[in-house]
Amino acid sequence: MAPIELYRDQNHACLMFTDLIEEDGQAIQANQFLIVDDDTGAVLDPGGNLAFNELFMGMRRFFPPQKLSYILASHADPDIIASLDRWLTSTDATLVISRIWERFVPHFTKVGKTENRIIAVPDAGAHLPLGRHNLMLVPAHFMHSEGNFHFYDPVSRILFTGDLGASMTTGPEARVPVTDLQPHIPRMEGFHRRYMVSNKVLRLWVRMARQLDIAMIVPQHGAPIMGVAVEEFLSWIEYLACGIDLMDERAYQVPSAHIDPVLRQVRPGLQAANG
Q1: Within a domain: residue 80?
Q2: What is residue 269's three-state secondary structure?
Q3: Do residues 51 and 75 make contact, with C-beta atoms less than 8 angstroms apart?
Q4: What is this structure's pTM?
Q5: pLDDT beneath 70: ranges in the chain
Q6: How many independent structural domains does the chain possess?
Q7: Which of 68, 96, 123, 188 is deepest in the core (most CB within 10 A)?
Q8: What pLDDT, on the 0 to 100 scale, is given for residue 275?
Q9: Does the residue 264 lie in any domain?
Q10: pLDDT at site 271
């Protein structure tokens, strides 16, 4: 299936690939992105080895992958950059990632492959030149990763948000933008309550995000959020209890369950008889 054109004008394009991973239930659906400005290109959150071949071949219609300038990684999860070794081998692109992960991502590659190939972004973020414009690397730490960035494209007014805004959908479902948030929340709520670290972080991020002119929020999993649903999403997460907000002593107890390695199942532990 062809990628979605999230935005296009004469010199600038943002493309979204939604269905490069087989829908067999073994791996979560994931989106990959290509931004092109004039003759400069960047791939965003290119994914793991499951997506590499299809993405590399699929983007050829729009931009020669060998000429990519950047590999932008919102964080260092395997569904974000497990294919890093192959991208560094196939292109001359530089990896742009939080400084937190600078010495961790070489574990995805062969020895020496990342030498002089990483831009380590400070916690405060930065503006990154791309063609005639700049991408804004927006702080999003602990949403969910310790070193996390979102990518704001001022030309298209798209905010690429990694795991924030993620929804559990299929590849074809991810192609349909969300314009009314309320019916979409059941696909998002469980993920955000578990993966986002705390409401404090969400509130701080929302305060910052409202300073941007956002036409569309595009997560790494699931469908884009646009129109009035953008502000609906900001208002929803602003008051969402999540992560450590929901934890108490029940989450930290010595385990009693047992794993059956043959059936690959967890069996509840037997309670000791009283008396």
Answers
A1: yes
A2: coil
A3: no
A4: 0.94
A5: 22-24, 270-275
A6: 1
A7: 188
A8: 40
A9: no
A10: 58
Query: Is residue 124 a contact partner of residue 136, using CB atoms and an 8 Å limit?
Result: no
The boundaries of the domain holding residue 228 are 4-120+134-246
Q: Which of 138, 131, 72 is nearest to 105 (CA)?
A: 72
Half-sphere exposure of residue 129, counting CA atoms within 13 Å on the CB side?
3
Q: Give the pLDDT confidence score for residue 23 in this predicted structure.
A: 65
pLDDT of residue 270: 67
**Tens digits of residue pLDDT in 46-81:** 999 989 999 999 999 999 999 999 999 999 999 999
CATH value at residue 205: 3.60.15.10
Residue 275 lies in a domain: no
CA-to-CA dists, residue 256 to 235, 259, 260, 266, 271, angstroms: 40, 10, 13, 10, 8
Q: Which of 13, 11, 19 is nearest to 34 (CA)?
A: 13
Q: Beta strands 158-160 and 149-153: pairing type? A: antiparallel
Q: Phi then psi for 212, rounded to 5 degrees?
A: -95, 150
**Whole-Å CA distances, 104 to 7, 86, 90, 144:** 33, 17, 21, 17
Going by their DSSP bridges, the two strands 258-260 and 265-267 should be labelled as antiparallel
Is 127 part of a structural domain of the chain?
Answer: no
Chain centroid, CA 20 distance in Å: 15
Q: Which one, of 155, 186, 149, lies nearest residue 8 by Cα?
A: 155
Cβ partners under 8 Å of residue 94, min gap 6: 69, 70, 71, 117, 118, 119
Buried b (16+ CB within 10 A) or exposed e, 39-70: ebbbbbbbbbebbbebbbebbeebbebeebbb
